[in-house]
Design a protein that fits this description.
Elements (H helix, E strand, L loop, with lengths): L2 E2 L1 E4 L1 H5 L9 H14 L3 E5 L5 H13 L4 E5 L4 H10 L6 E8 L2 H7 L4 H16 L4 E7 L6 H14 L3 E6 L6 H14 L1 H4 L4 E6 L6 H10 L4 E4 L13 H10 L5 E2 L7 H11 L21 H9 L27 H10 L6 H17 L5 H8 L9 E9 L6 E9 L2 E9 L2 H12 L4 E9 L9 E9 L2 E9 L2 H14 L4
Parallel strand pairs: 1-10, 2-3, 2-9, 3-4, 4-5, 5-6, 6-7, 7-8, 8-9
Antiparallel strand pairs: 11-12, 12-13, 14-15, 15-16
Helix pairs in contact: 2-3, 2-12, 6-7, 7-8, 8-10, 12-16, 17-18
Bound molecules: 3-methyl-2-oxobutanoic acid and zinc ion.
Length: 500
């Protein structure tokens, strides 16, 4: 009989912490509903004390989903725990995730404390959280670099205090797979409450050295029964372990004998939805969900795959929800086809919102032959800019080889019209210079990424930008079949986010 691995998704907490990936509450609900459909066991919905936005999102996500446990993060601080408990009021199944750093460097430099005092604070936090909820998860931050013997004492103490899950994060992504696997094994062998089934161990691995999934698997093989993961592996710095990798490894390697509740056919649509809402492109060669993950380009591979797919494919793309026949819509596709495709991608639209998106879809279909999932998600999210104070009215650019580019731009700023023109060493430079004549502020373009256009010269170009203003960096996104317009839209998106 196989064992069960619980999937704890932290896309909406650890993933959402990434600069530029912030979602509003409506978008978070969309992701949470899709995670529920995907079959995750626990959704970490936020860190309620950190901001009113996070507090509110935990409340709204709790109302919106039914089956998964909703988890809220706290430090080992009573006020954090009070606020988390309040935010979880509407959750049908609730969990408080509290914890403290346990490595020597955290104890000394972060807490200016000592090992015994940290155990006392950990136990007090778990006991305090238990006043509110039965299900309490404890995290030993930087457990990856915590001495195993001391870590076992911490885990033993918190299990005795009532923790139901003990999270062993490799916070810095430092561990080697064998080292991390041995850590889990050591805890399983030295903490009585774990072998007695009073609590389970959880992995939470970061990918700084590209070993997050390998470490997670080593943890699972050695006894962890919960894995903390994110969609597309998004997360701080190099990211977290990706959900799709763990789910598909366990599906492909049946010999490990561990199952999850993940409906793998929902993996690809979930990946697209998260990438689109967070404006975070997926690298083309990303395992399972990258655009090239199932593309065989070498002649030898193509020949083999045509003879029998098993020669070079270890998974059927359909098993992760990639179905070539269903992902292309054209100008002849009706409203129902669009609605259906959006629903597969986790976006439910009806009435006026559907009508608006369908109109935009028809306009885009006039400009490009085939509309793919990314385009559809972009269109569905287009009204995210509707509330912006500054909008692009028009843009005209003259450019060419051997001449300076000239741009004329029109902006609508809360209903008032402004125009300016400028020349530059290229069309984007000219357009941004013209824009800056209207928006006269000290701002600097720090990063400018044009996402690769996958199919044809008529494809929608996506631009990600970072603009520094008043000591802060703002992230913007633009998408258009015209790449210069997409660039200006991304710049305007940044400006609309300026705090003052
Ligand atoms: O990486 C980490 O240690 C964390 C904890 C807060 C769980 O995200
Ligand atoms: Zn983390």
């Amino acid at each position: 009989m196989s064992d069960r691995l619980y999937i704890f998704d932290t896309t909406l907490r650890d993933g959402e912490q990434v600069p530029g990936c912030q979602l509003n509450t409506i978008e978070k609900i969309q992701v949470a509903r899709q995670l529920e459909a995907l079959g995750v066991d626990v959704i970490e919905a936020g860190f309620p004390i950190s901001s009113p936005g996070d507090f509110n999102s935990v409340i709204e996500i709790s109302k919106a989903v039914t089956w998964p446990t909703i988890c809220a993060l706290t430090r080992a601080v009573t006020k954090d725990i009070d606020v988390a408990a309040e935010a979880l009021a509407y959750a049908k199944h609730k969990r408080i995730h509290t914890g403290i750093g346990t490595s020597d460097s955290h104890i000394r430099y972060k807490f200016n404390s000592n090992r015994e005092e940290i155990i006392e604070r950990a136990v007090a936090a778990v006991k305090y959280a238990k006043r509110y909820v039965e299900d309490v998860e404890f995290y030993a931050e930087d457990a990856g670099r915590t001495d195993n013997e001391y870590l076992a004492r911490v885990i033993d103490a918190v299990v005795k205090a009532g923790a139901t899950v003990c999270n062993i994060p490799d916070t810095t992504g430092y561990c080697l797979p064998e080292e991390f696997g041995n850590k889990i094994k050591y805890l399983m062998e030295h903490v009585d409450g774990l072998s007695a089934g009073k609590a389970i161990l959880s992995t939470h691995c970061h990918n700084d050295l590209g070993m997050a999934t390998a470490n997670t698997m080593a943890g699972i093989i050695n006894g962890a029964r919960q894995a903390e993961v994110t969609i597309n592996g998004i997360g701080e710095r190099a990211g977290n372990t990706s959900l799709e990798e763990v789910a598909m490894i366990l599906k492909c390697h049946r010999g490990i004998g561990i199952d999850t509740n993940i409906n793998t056919q929902k993996i690809y649509p979930t990946s697209r939805l998260v990438s689109s809402l967070m404006n975070m492109p997926v690298q083309p060669n990303k395992a399972i969900v990258g655009r090239n993950a199932f593309a065989h380009s070498s002649g030898i591979h193509q020949d083999g795959v045509l003879k029998n797919v098993q020669t070079y494919e270890i998974m059927d793309p359909k098993d992760v929800g990639i179905d070539d026949n269903s992902i292309v819509l054209t100008a002849r596709s009706g409203r129902a086809a669009l609605k259906h495709r959006l629903s597969v991608l986790g976006v439910e639209l009806d009435g006026e919102a559907l009508d608006k998106t369908y109109e935009a879809f028809l306009r885009l279909a006039d400009q490009k032959k085939e509309i793919n999932d990314d385009d559809i998600l972009m269109l569905a999210g287009a009204d995210r800019t509707a509330s912006h104070a500054i909008k692009l009215d028009y843009l005209q650019v003259t450019t060419g080889m051997g001449v300076r580019s000239v741009a004329c731009i029109g902006l609508d700023i809360t209903g008032e019209k402004f125009e300016a023109s400028a020349s530059g060493n290229g069309p984007v430079d000219a357009a941004i210079k013209a824009l800056k004549r209207i928006i006269n502020r000290q701002m600097t373009l720090k990063e400018f990424t044009i996402q690769a256009i996958s199919k044809g010269s008529d494809d929608v170009g996506k631009v990600h930008m970072q603009v520094e203003y008043d000591g802060r960096v703002y992230y913007g996104f633009g998408a258009n079949t015209d790449i210069v317009t997409a660039s200006v839209e991304a710049y305007i998106d940044c400006i609309n986010k300026f705090k003052k």
